[in-house]
Design a protein that fits this description.
About 5% of the residues have low confidence. It is globular, with a radius of gyration of 17 Å. The protein has 217 residues and is of the alpha+beta class. Helices cover 25% and strands 32% of the residues. Helix 1 packs antiparallel against helix 2 and helix 1 runs parallel beside helix 4.
Length: 217
Amino acid sequence: MDRKDRTPQDEIAQIVIEFLEVAITSVIFLKGVYPNGAFERRRYMNLVVHKARNPQLNEYIHSAVNGLIPFVTKDLVDRVAVIFFDDGNVPIERLVFRLNVNQLYNSKVEQADMEFSLRSFLIKLPVSEPLSKVLPRNCRWEITAYFHSLPQSSTSKDTEMWIPSDAKQWQQPPVIIPIKSMISKPLGLQLYTEHPTSPSSPKNKPNLFDTPSGGDN
C-alpha cells in the first residue's frame, strides 16, 4: 500500500504490530522459556531488547503477529495473548495485550508520541513481578488472538493462518494482575496477566483463534 493511501488506522496498526512483535519476544525471554543464549540484543525505540536467534522461533512470532495487521486496522482484535501451558496442556498463565484502535480517529498519527507511550510498556516488562515467576519444566506456549467477531476464512486469505483454538480454558474467572495501560485518542492498550483462581477442569470455548504452538522449553 502506498504511504499516501494509508489511513490513520493503517498507521496505528503498523506501529502496534511492530511493538507487539518486540514485546512478545521480550516476554518469552523474560519467562526463561529458552536459554538466554537463544536470544541476541537489539535496540528498539532506543531501548535494549531481545530478538530470537533461532530462525523458526523468530519467524513464528513475526508471522503470527504480522498476520493480525488487517484485523487490528479494523479493530476486530480484542486481545492478543501469550499463553503458557503445563505438560498436561492446561493453561497456567496468560499475558494479555488488550487493544482498542479508534475507528473514528481521522487526524495525523503522531508516531513519536505513540512510540513514546508504547516504550513505557517495554520499560515496565523487565521489572514486572508476574514476569519474574519461573515456569514449570516441560511447559509450552502459543500466541492466541481473541476477535470481536470471527474472521471468515472463505472471504479473506489473511485468515488462512489462523485456526480455531482447542486450548482448554478455565471454568472460573481468572485472577487478573494489571501491569500497564495507556489511553489516547488513536489507541488504547492494556497489559495484564491472568492466572487460574483454583485448580479446576478446564473447558473448551470456540471463540478464539491461534497459530501453531511456539514451542516447548
